[in-house]
Design brief:
Length: 244
């Protein structure tokens, strides 16, 4: 199932904003969910709208597009920057922008940026196909008292409390010295999903996804435990599971 890409457009110039929105709306599988004229408007709309991609002008009075992006939540939508000044490209990509399109916006170039954003949104988490997670029989978890060996499918989820990562199974919780990123890279992308900057979940153990007002979910696991799913992760998870 192909879900529409939900796009927010921001440009302080009315004519440019409407032209960008028109070019986007003419593309298949794109839904314009909001048009904004300032960075403050963008931040306010992101607090209430489910947005996959923000197409954002860099040069705006008050808060620039770069500054707006820096104030977005960590689980922000993907970003495509627009500007007439190519010297901002390095700064834009340093922020993790999906693409950078020069004005005046060309239809074909904008389509390429949207296609790139859609591929990123639909792609599973990247893992090394030759790494440990590809055919891992036992997961080694370094702790302060030694190394614990687990079968990867025993892991229900893993969480980060700001200091240490806890790896959970149905029977126990293990404090690990590894980072959540390191653990994610060692687990199979076919079963495990990063659902929050502080959590990874094994989809084989998820029994129910309960929507919350923030736009995310609470993932209810077998045995009654719960894991928060952020707005950004919820968008990817819906696409992965084919949920409209």
């Amino acid at each position: 199932m192909t879900l529409a890409l939900r796009v927010l457009v921001c440009d302080d110039e009315l004519v440019a904003r409407r032209r960008t929105s028109r070019l986007l709306s003419e593309q298949a599988g794109v839904e314009i969910v909001a048009e904004c004229a300032s960075g403050d408007e963008v931040l306010a709309r992101l607090a209430v709208e489910d947005v996959d991609l923000v197409v954002l002008d860099i040069n705006m009075p008050g808060m620039t597009g770069i500054e707006t992006a820096m104030k977005m939540p960590e689980d922000r939508p993907y970003l495509v920057f627009l500007t007439a000044h190519p010297e901002h490209a390095v700064e834009a990509f340093d922020l993790g922008a999906t693409d950078y399109v020069l004005k005046p916006v060309d239809e074909a170039r904008l389509r390429k940026a949207i296609d790139r954003a859609r591929r990123q949104l639909d792609a599973p988490a990247r893992r090394d196909p030759h790494g440990a997670g590809a055919s891992l029989a036992r997961l080694a978890i370094a702790t302060r008292t030694g190394v614990v060996l687990l079968g990867p499918d025993e892991v229900t989820h893993a969480t980060f409390d700001g200091q240490l990562v806890t790896v959970h199974t149905r029977e126990r919780a293990i404090l690990s010295e590894a980072t959540l990123q390191e653990l994610e890279e060692r687990l199979s992308a076919s079963h495990f999903e990063r659902v929050h900057r502080r959590a990874i979940v094994n989809l084989l153990h998820v029994e129910r996804l309960e929507p919350v007002l923030s736009g995310g979910y609470v993932a209810r696991l077998a045995g009654g435990r719960t894991v928060d799913v952020s707005r950004q992760a919820a968008r990817k998870l819906r696409r992965r599971l084919g949920i409209a």
